[in-house]
Design a protein that fits this description.
164 residues; mainly beta; Immunoglobulin-like; 2 domains; 5-stranded mixed β-sheet; 3-stranded antiparallel β-sheet; 2 helices; 8 strands; globular
Length: 164
Amino acid sequence: MPLFLKDPLQIITFQSYGRGNRLYLRGRALEDENINLEGKGFLKLFLNSFKRFNTDKISNTELTIRLNDGRVLETKTDSKGYFKISESIENLQSLIDDEGWMSYEISYKHAIEGRKIQQENCFVGKMLIPAATASYGVISDIDDTILHTGVASRLKWRTQKHLF
């Protein structure tokens, strides 16, 4: 048995928004760092914070997206493990639920030798398609917009301070 086992892989999808004919999906392919959200106490909080900022990305790997109507798209992660799809696609409005959310599935296109992929290589994402009658929307982002958190700083000291 190897001394250091490699973490399993996951895909984190970011909630996004689009239009009835515009698909906009974002996310990141990463190793699953096994963050324990139940942990209490300074040491466990510090360890979880370290794991969040010390992510191991999965660079330049192919991903497959499946829409609920059977359409399949492909993309590739960049050097930092991020993916983004921004495409004109007809009839997305037919795929939304009663609240305007369109779900999709994303997976690694190929197995990666020696690596386990979480959730049987099927990760779910959501994109909001507002109603055509919507006259405005509210998008909020507190980190470094309203409250200076230091999330973009190199060592994340200010972020650590806010957590404890």
